[in-house]
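Record 1 of the preview.
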Amino acid sequence: MITKPNTYAQAKVSKANEAYEAYRRYSGRVLLPDRVRWNTMHVSALYSETPVLSNIFYAVRLRVGDDVRELAEKALVLWLNSIWGLLSISINKEETEGLFTRLKMTQWRLLPVLNVTALGIDRLRCLAEAFNRHASAQFLVGSRLIDQFESGGRLVLDADVANCLGMRVGSRELDELRGLYRLFGNALRQMRR
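->
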């Protein structure tokens, strides 16, 4: 869920002010994909500690104060990578070819997501801390989304999100999550055809 810039551009001296202004206005730390291939995807949203621009991701900047910006951005990225975020993305995607789908910026804007701007500071901190724990989790880095559901490796991530949002997560709820994973995994497998 965490990434770093992998390429840098340098503007011509005559265009430096325009380039800086474009970077300042359009860069962001939250990265949302324009296109998703569900059978190779590991995560649905990324966070960069450095504001970036990308040609394959939308760089998003939340309308929050600088004092809570990092917490809110990490909370949003974590939620989008939770089962609830993935289901929202899946339901609102535009299919272009089976497992290959697209989400235009207007679709991302209309996507029903967790309103991190309405959360209290304690919940934001809890979600940001959960993000930090799971940002480089092996089940995210080493396996495709469909494998994550089959292995159940993401149960801790989703349980942490639920706990941070004040939901009770006991053995019954974890069993329900496993059942939801099976259903979503089956849906992804059927999309392959």
